[in-house]
Amino acid sequence: MDRRRTTGDSASGAGVRTDPMRQKGKKSMGKNSERKRSRAMVLWACMCCLLLLGCEPPKYGYRPGEQGYWYVTNIMHRQMPGLTSGDQPPKLIETDSYGRELWCFSDCYIIYQAHDDTENAETVWFYEDWCFLIGYFDPPNEEEVERLKEQNDWGHPLQKEEMSVRYRGWHSGKRAHVEIADAMDHMLPREDLENCLLIDEDREGKQLYYYVYDQKDSISSARFFVIWENEYRFDVEKSVMRIENWEYQEALHEFKLQNDWCFGEW
Question: Does pTM top 0.85 for this prediction?
Answer without folding.
Answer: no
